[in-house]
Predict the structure of Na(+)/H(+) antiporter NhaA.
Amino acid sequence: MSRLHSPTEGAACARQPALLAFSDRLRALLSRIAHSDAAAGVMLLLAAAVALVWANSSAQDSYHALWHADIGFTLGQWSFTQSAHFWVNDALMTVFFLIVGMEIRRELHSGALAEPRQALLPVLAALGGVAVPAMIYLALIPSAGLRPGWAIPTATDIAFAVGVLALVGRGLPPALRVFLLTLAIIDDLIAVLIIALFYSGGLQWSMLLVAGLGLLGVYGLQALGVRRAWFYVLPGAVLWWGVWQTGAHPTLAGVVLGLLTPVHMLAGRESAAPVERVASALHPWVTFGIMPLFALANAGVTLQSGGLTDEGRYLLPAIVTALVLGKPLGVMLTSWVAVRLSICSLPPSVRWSHMLLAGMLAGIGFTMAIFIATLAFPDPGLLNASKLGVLMASGGAAVLALAWGWGLRYLDTRAGMQREQIAA
């Protein structure tokens, strides 16, 4: 004899499928947000805005005290203590550079950089987008003391630039996003090389042995077929420590680890290659954790009238001009010459107006530009001016790109409607 359900039990049973469906929709929504380009750009903007407001409020002392606070740990007789700023810029940002390394590795294996002919245009555009802003910067500064900042306007922020492109919306050719991503990845690769060659102190070559031990550990685990990422944390930490002790910037260890990440799956054992799986797992943490935290720690510049030194008043417009004007000029000039000489051709459905949009978006330096500024200028006054210049330039480039992109969408929509009317 079956038991009769009470009205309360029946209602509960009826609610379970609805709750499961809501839970599935919520998980899908959160997953889309976690991998959304537009959401990444918005998070960076919010973090930078909070830092600016905080650093210029009555609580500005607490902002600076927070990032200068010592954080460390002790193991027996050994202790390691550094400022919160160090942990963000030198430790956590290593994970960001790990993602950069894996993106480069993936593109070299099966992406836009795997086919030389396909990669040639964004490579040349990226080179122009590095050289022209650097030359404009050097032409505008009045003193040799500001020359170390020449590389600040050469970098492109991938997340911010692609996020702004996503805000423009649909209607743009898909090949434009691929072109912009490839250009930004090459930009990051060039920035990494610049950091390694020009912003590393006198190298302690003996400490390369420690870095070599870390690399040996990584290769050893790969030879044993170890695919779980957590096993690589220890040799990765040894590599990071060795790179730091040599005098090079420790985040370069992240790039090296990213470039060493396997791109092939083990048959029957993996649903995705490690370079895909690890990057996908780390992406939300980097996008919504590390990068906003970096912006919060580094975007808090002083805006008071007395906040800029005499040299800073020259530095700020040089960075703004180099990023906002130099980037699109360099991207457009080298691309036009390459196409004109038939070295390469524009991507499918991409017009020169789209290329100008890509150049404007490349002027959004933000994360990488601020990072290079922290290496270029130890002087607080010059660092403050350079950060302010990066923020103003990135914001200006984003606004110009949005206006231009929306204008292109409007014109394309009008043209499409006119074609439909003629056809009818």
